Structures are given as structure tokens and as C-alpha cells.
Amino acid sequence: MAKVIPFKGILYNPDKVSGDEVTAPPYDIITPEYREELYRKNPCNIVRIDFGKEEAGDTDKDNKYRRARNFFEQWAKEGILVQDDRPSFYACEIDYSVYGEKKKLRGLFAMVRIEELGKGVYPHEETHSKPKADRLNLMKACLANTSPIYALYNNPQKIASAVIDNISVEPYISAHDMDGAHHKLYKIQDESKINLIKDELSDKPIFIADGHHRYEVALEFKREKGEGPWEYALMFLANMADEGISILPTHRLVKGIKNIGGIMQKIEKDFTVEKMGDNEDIAKALLVSGKNSFGLYIGGKKQRFMLKYKGTDLKDIDPALQNLDVVVLHELILKRDLGITDVAYEMDVQEAVKKTDSGSFDAAFFLNPTGVNDVERVALSGLRMPPKSTYFYPKLLTGLVINSFKNQI
Asked: Most buried in the list 130, 213, 270, 397, measured by CB within 10 Å?
């Protein structure tokens, strides 16, 4: 099982900066426009380190990675970033709203020993191939984990959760994200509480929720460097037994649908097809219809359908995957019935409809979110869901705590 330890975190000094001004979303959801906004917020915003801009005249030696290291070192000299003097766990509470419901996500920032995937640390979905050189170059330049991996474990006893619930002090630092969620960070330095948490996590498998690429980069860096503090990676660990974890669906946009009648004939072999009202709320209808139900919006004709799987034809798929909505959609409808493997993704239902109406896509398929228990089951089976099967919400803020390899030696 994975080894989880406290660490000497590097944190922003709340006497010198505001958390609202110096934190940022994960780099991979920051648009160029929002990066400019983050640059303007504060000259010490973490985006300058974690996702800095390329500039005219950059070279192999003088570039955004060198600037990131320079910012990291300079802010430490100026006392804007400060290092804890003893190993700690860092509790984080996130108050947020989803679908009109107020929720609280609790978890811990900790160091987790890097293992080969499937040996204590488990992925749950396939990832699109994309350059990892950027994250690796940043790690080499700063010798640090500048942003955390979001991971899960499962323990109904909720020992760490109880420790977090009993924290009575004001947060060390707090910040709001771009959706208004309130992120609060607390230090856990009491040895007895640290030992309780270490004992709880000592025999638990860890499941990567968000940050598969970051984990793979950390694994590659460890292989290159050998033994050292880089054998551990910074993770946010949330207990699946808590009620605060939310997964949102990512809908699919497709091209190449021309013969609607012929396609419907194919789909009706495995699905009941119901015509929906022209202005019917697809997302609400899906929640009511439940598992193995899919919304379909046809561009041009602006038609809406509800597809309900009959559960008849996925015998060649591993049982751990057979009943997943995202697998039913990809394997039966997209691949077999439509012959489509190239899809685009969209979180917002109305935005997906707009993109379809504009002619950019022929149709949009809508689905319910994947369950957190599905993540555990699939991961422990050594399998992976299709890409973009889960969207864990809210996203963690970068900059609440950083792990420097140099400071752990």
C-alpha cells in the first residue's frame, strides 16, 4: 500500500499577501485570458511559477522555467513564501455549491510515496496523449511539486475527517476560486494527530482522481533521479466515505451524423428512444431517468431524445466496466452504431447545445456523472475508463501549499 507522510510545506505568508490574489486554478484549465488576469492580480501570483508565459526572445536557457525558479527563490528571500520548520499535514476545507446544494469537501495535503501504477496507487481513466515535457521541465527547474495531485482513499471510520472537524483555530490562509468556492488551509502539527492520520492511511490504496499526467511526470522524475525526496509527490487526499466529493459529467460532441433515421434504427436495438419536448431540460430529465440513460440533441432540427439502455449487449466488456454510462455510450453508440472515435468535450449543457446549433457539431450526447464508488471499483480491477469520464469538482487551488524537494532533504 502507499506510504503517506507529513512534510515541511512552503506556504504564502498571509501577513504579506492575500490568498485571493496569489492562488490560481490548476494550470490545465487556465485559459490565456484568465492567465493574463492572474498576472494582473498580484506580481506574486503562483501562476508565474506554475504556468508562466512564454516571452519573445526566450532561449533554451532563459525561458519561463528559469523565470519560475527565479520567482520561487526571490519570493522566498523576500519572505513572501515561507517554509514550515517541522513536518506537517495540511488540512483543507472547501465550501462550495453544486446544482444549488451547499457542500463541504475535506482533505489533507500530504506526501505520498511514488509507486508504479497499480501498486498502491491506482489510475481510474485513460488519458489523452499530451506533452509532459512542460511539467517535467518545471519540476527540474524548481525542484518542487508546485501543484498537487487530487487523490482518494476509502475509510468509513473517517479518522482524518474527525481530526479536521475538530480544528477550532482560524485558517492559516484562505482563498476563493473563480466559481466562488471558499478554500481554507490549516496546519496539523500535533504529533498524536499526525500519527493517527498516518495509521489510518498506512494500509489504504490511493486512487488518482485528478492529475494522472502530473503523477506520471513525478514517476518519470523519480526514475531519472533515483533515491531522494522526489520519491514522494504532493497530493490532496480526500476520503471517499465523506459526503463532500462531487463528480460532474462531461458531455460529448460529435460530427459525421447525417442519416438520422438510419442511426436511430441502429440505436433502437439496444436503447428505448423517447422524444423530448423542444424546451425540456436535458440535465434534469437525465437525473430523473437515472443510470444508463442518455440525452441526445440533434443540431439543425433541434430535436431532443432520451435514450435508455436495455442492458443487452456488452458481454465482451469486463464486468467492472459493463454498467458504466460512459462505457455504454462510447462502446455501443459512438463506436459501434456511429463509427465515431473522435469526440469533443463540454461540461455545460447549454454551451453544448449552442455549439451544436452553430453547426460546429452535428449532435451532442449528454450523460449523468460517474459515481465515486465506480472509480474505486474500476481502479482496483486494474482497468481504466474512457478519457474524461470524471470531472472532480471543485478543482483544487494551486498555491495553498508547495513541496520543495530541497527543503525535505
From this structure: 397
